[in-house]
Fold this protein.
Amino acid sequence: MKKWLIAAVSLAIAIILFMYSNTEAKAAGMTLGYTTGDTASYNSLVKYHTYMNSIATDTFAFEKNGQIIGDAPTKQLTYAKKKNIKTWAVISNYNDTIYDFDGDLASRVMRHHTAKKRFTDQLIALAKKHSYYGINIDFEAVNPEDRSTYSRFIQDVTQALKKKQIKTMVSVPAKSADDQNDDWSWPYDYAKIGQYADYVQVMTYDEHGIWGEPGSVASGGWIKSALQFAAKNIKANKVIMGIPAYGYDWDTKDESGSAMREWNELKTLINKQKAKPIFNKTSGSMTFSYVDKKKHKHVVWYENEKTVQSKSHLAKQFKIAGVSVYALGNESESFWKAIRKGTK
């Protein structure tokens, strides 16, 4: 074969391989696992690291003066760096004093110039010190009157981080419309937040929880509506959808007996109670009931491998940036295999 022909064939093969690898990378998208900084999270990271390309360490909060508090899980960060997994630092407005997300705490930092500057400066310092790829801002229960203030806050923080080559992800509640009467989701202006942030993580879980009536944690129709709204207001290649590695167990007679059930815990519970799970066609989720030692009826809703695969496939259907999982330490390999099958 002549040299020029060999060179041409080689070039063609190289181009095909390059295009194929780029297509594969694009198809894979982001698969992000939230970690809580504990041993279980670290063990899951080590066991299942090949299934994810990003982790978000949910270990930081802040005080009313803007001071960042919390510890970096250095063991996890070292391992992630070794495996070329991108790392995000989650900063939430969770208040240990009230054991809940604190809208007033968020408002204070957003509205007070000195606190806002300290908060922003410390985000940069935190990212640099621990080589975080980006910051994940997770302000929940933001006050309705702070809607525009929060958007401006995100704009200012993301611009400051961008100057230091630090990416920004913002976590927002799932919603299918802007409803001023919905105090939980109204404060988040998807269009403006999406304009400024590099990624927007839509929390497509907790459709139902033990604070209310039993129901699917993340029904298929609910997720679709949320993704449709998100993709309409935010560039699809910025949107991340959340997948829960847990379910909820409602004690129908005593609220204190209700609990969140981790993925691994659910199979044990099913076997122990000799329960017979049923696939609910309307929600695309699994459910079962049982009676405890106190003779209280329990209703459980959760996702299994088939429903996780089906719901994670929505990321591909809507051509969004990827999926996130809450949280590492709750799950088994079958969970990750389901996500991989769904996102292929």
